[in-house]
């Protein structure tokens, strides 16, 4: 395994937050060694089958909590990924944007709104928080919103204020959401995605920084197979011989209960 070149599977497509985490962790790997996957389960499968030496998956967000699908895969109730281990972690700041096709004749962020910036109170949320951002363009054309399920909870104040009642459609990643919005030339589709994804797909910014918390960030795990090489750390420390005694390990305990 020591001579095997490092290859990495990550939740794609390119420009996803997981892709950003992968580039941060493996900055010297050529693009041909990075393999985007359509789902988190596919990342686990790529590492388990030794198709790649490592994988990168989202684990939890500081605003919206755990990524449930990743937890389910670690639980591995069907014993499909028995050799998966965590060998590293990365924290990535998450700054969401509302992206899509800008209205015809758009001349810049000069939108006048009569909204006071507060979502409508409900029984479950009698005192809704005010969003941190305001729209940069007219949102009246938007009929469908696409994003990863985690993003809705991270941008609740903005969405509840300016896009209340608009249909929300879950997709596999925020970068996939940008792809879908790009394909809809009518301008009726928008995505909660990243600045990088917007730039890659040539989309306009309908709003920037729409996450509820300024310090919003997501924790990602680096995966490998049991018996494989450890992740090389910036200090140069690596190698299977250190697995039992490495002084910088964190303990991660997972368990399931009957219910």
Automatic annotation (TrEMBL):
Coiled-coil segments: none
Lyase as UniProt keyword: yes
Identification of the protein by name: prephenate dehydratase
Enzyme class name: lyase
Domain Prephenate dehydratase span(s) in chain numbering: 7-225
MF terms (GO), sorted A to Z: prephenate dehydratase activity
Entry keyword NADP: no
Top-rank lineage group of the source organism: Eukaryota
Source organism of the structure: Lophium mytilinum
Pathway in which this enzyme or protein is active: Amino-acid biosynthesis; L-phenylalanine biosynthesis; phenylpyruvate from prephenate: step 1/1
């Amino acid at each position: 395994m020591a001579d095997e070149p490092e290859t990495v599977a990550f939740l794609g497509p390119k420009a996803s937050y997981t892709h950003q985490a992968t580039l941060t962790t493996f900055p010297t790997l050529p693009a041909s060694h990075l393999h985007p996957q359509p789902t988190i389960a596919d990342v686990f499968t790529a590492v388990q089958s030794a198709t790649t030496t490592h994988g990168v998956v989202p684990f939890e967000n500081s605003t919206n909590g755990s990524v449930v699908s990743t937890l389910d895969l670690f639980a591995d109730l069907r014993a499909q990924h028995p050799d998966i281990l965590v060998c590293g972690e990365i924290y990535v700041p998450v700054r969401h944007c509302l992206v899509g096709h800008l209205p015809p004749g758009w001349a810049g962020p000069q939108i006048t709104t009569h909204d006071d910036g507060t979502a409508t109170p409900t029984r479950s949320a009698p005192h809704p928080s005010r969003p941190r951002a305001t729209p940069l363009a007219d949102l009246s054309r938007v009929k469908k919103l696409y994003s990863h399920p985690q993003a809705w909870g991270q941008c609740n104040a903005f969405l509840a204020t300016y896009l209340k009642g608009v249909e929300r459609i879950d997709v596999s990643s925020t970068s996939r959401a940008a792809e879908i919005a790009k394909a809809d030339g009518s301008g009726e589709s928008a995505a909660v995605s990243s600045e990088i994804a917007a730039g890659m797909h040539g989309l306009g910014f309908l709003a920037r920084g729409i996450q509820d918390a300024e310090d919003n960030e997501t924790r990602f795990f680096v995966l490998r197979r049991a018996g494989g090489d450890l992740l090389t750390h910036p200090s140069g420390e690596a190698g299977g011989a250190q697995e039992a005694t490495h002084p910088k390990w964190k303990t991660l305990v997972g368990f399931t209960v009957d219910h």
